[in-house]
Amino acid sequence: MAAKLLKNSQIHFGFMPNAESLNKKIIQAYLNLGEEDFIRKSHFFNGRHENLYIERSRIPEIGVVLEQAESYAKEILGMQGQKIRSGFWFNDMGPGASTTEHNHDDNDELLSGVYYVQVPAESGELTIIDIYSRTIIRPQAGMFVFFAPDVSHSVSVNQSSDSRVSMGINFGPALL
Prior knowledge:
Blueprint: E1 6-8, E2 11-15, H1 19-31, E3 40-45, E4 48-53, H2 61-77, E5 84-93, E6 99-102, E7 111-118, E8 126-129, E9 134-137, E10 143-147, E11 152-155, E12 164-173
Antiparallel strand pairs: 1-2, 2-10, 3-4, 5-12, 6-11, 7-10, 7-12, 8-9, 8-11
């Protein structure tokens, strides 16, 4: 599928070209990580860390995903031709896990997003919550979803027997 950005007012969707083969490489490398590979873990809720941080170079294919995500982010933000920075983390949501309502409006983020690497059937839906509505998104592998950092969102319970693996991404102004 070609890289094309779809817009729904406050929510933007994109798809990763060649996602199937790319995601297989990412998930294989991710599953081979050891505890020493995680430089940080945060947001410990309900018996798991929601955010798992690694060095970008640890899984080279992440660079391809982040390049596409940054391209989409520049288009959404009207910053084509400018530099932005992106930070990412993995979210490994095992059977029975969910993610509580939160937002990413902590620092100087301009845009937030998620990229789906592995999405078993019935592994949870993303709910975007704004003051007027709730939008429920059924994720699929290779999908990007972008939204403002101050928009609340949550993920319903993973009712599958496998983990759903995604990458959270925040975009901010380029550091000088």
